[in-house]
């Protein structure tokens, strides 16, 4: 049997519990420690996972040479400090999104991971969604033709946070998908948003992203919306694609577009819609956790590596500046 990767996780809250559970179920890793500041959480985990140890002291966990990798699932303000300490101790790091809140900090983590030759992976979960993997292949194969534009919607009457706005909370996923599908870096970003429920915490944000090869993208996020919508729509010169997370992760292809005729007229093509069938049914979180372990054991670069997390953060940071500047276009 292959050697198991020994892991400690810092942060065992709402999202952290999903990570801890998924890593625990993998055959090639061992969850040695869980760490959280909340005594009630420590008590519950000690009961549920008798094979692991639980503590409120992350320094003790980082000091254990048997621990090869650290999972950071604390709120974002603590990501930088904990990920940096873990890399300095020679551990591989999985850090939740967004990688950090500051571009300089993320850059530092990327360089540090290179220097100590350890993996740095960011929890951009949607990149492990099988339908997004399939959509990426469809785009790469040229099945859509030239991609003209794409947009995403992540809307709900959802949890209204009081420490971060809807953009910082919801948009990292969609920005990571936009950059992944196009496979290039944007040139500028603008964002329009508004705070209705609480002072200075935007409930709704529209982020517009421009690429120098002509594509444009829009990311619409809101926790103040009547219906739950999670869609990614890609419009190409040959076909159009719709990924609908709420509707059972359905990926549909539309043979639709507008074509120039030899007589100079534009012909609208309104062909068939087909549902893409050959998509793996596996859960993205399981795939994401397995990918982190595989990257360590096979010495491969994670799909959502530190550099990828940094690119997403640059877009978020530019959108944040734009929000504060009344929607001004910010160069990247
Ligand atoms: N990938 C996804 O889809 C997804 C979804 C939700 C949240 N997240 C991310 O997961 C992270 C955690 O979010 P959450 O909703 O679970 O937050 P949460 O507040 O529910 O949990 C965070 C936990 O971290 C603990 N903590 C904070 N500082 C600590 C420290 N220094 N040492 C030990 N424990 C510490 C807190 O006690 C808390 O229990 C955030 O980065 C968030 O952006 C990702």
CATH architecture of the largest domain: 2-Layer Sandwich
- The CATH class label of the largest domain is Alpha Beta
Number of strands: 15
Strand order of the largest sheet: 14-13-12-11-7-10-9-8-15
Total number of distinct structural domains = 2
Q: Characterize the largest beta sheet: strand count, sense, and whether it forms a barrel.
A: 9 strands, mixed
Beta content comes to 25-35%
Mean of residue pLDDT values? 96
Specify Rg, calculated over alpha carbons.
21 Å
Shape: globular
- The CATH homologous superfamily of the largest domain is named Dihydrodipicolinate Reductase, domain 2
Bound molecules: nicotinamide-adenine-dinucleotide
What does this structure look like?
This protein is of the alpha/beta class and 332 residues long. The chain has two domains: 5-118, Rossmann fold (3-Layer(aba) Sandwich), CATH 3.40.50; 127-282 and 314-331, Dihydrodipicolinate Reductase, domain 2 (2-Layer Sandwich). The chain is 33% helix and 30% strand. The protein has nine helices and 15 strands. The chain has helices spanning 16-25, 39-48, 58-62, 79-88, 103-116, 130-140, 166-182, 284-297, 306-324, and strands at residues 5-10, 29-35, 53-55, 69-72, 92-95, 120-122, 147-157, 188-194, 204-210, 216-222, 224-236, 240-244, 250-260, 266-275, 330-331. A nine-stranded mixed beta sheet has the order 14-13-12-11-7-10-9-8-15. A six-stranded parallel beta sheet has the order 3-2-1-4-5-6, with helices on both faces. Helix 5 runs antiparallel to helix 9. The chain is globular, with a radius of gyration of 21 Å. The mean pLDDT is 96. The structure holds nicotinamide-adenine-dinucleotide. Nicotinamide-adenine-dinucleotide binds at residues 10-16, 35-38, 41, 58, 73-76, 78, 96-97, 123, 125.
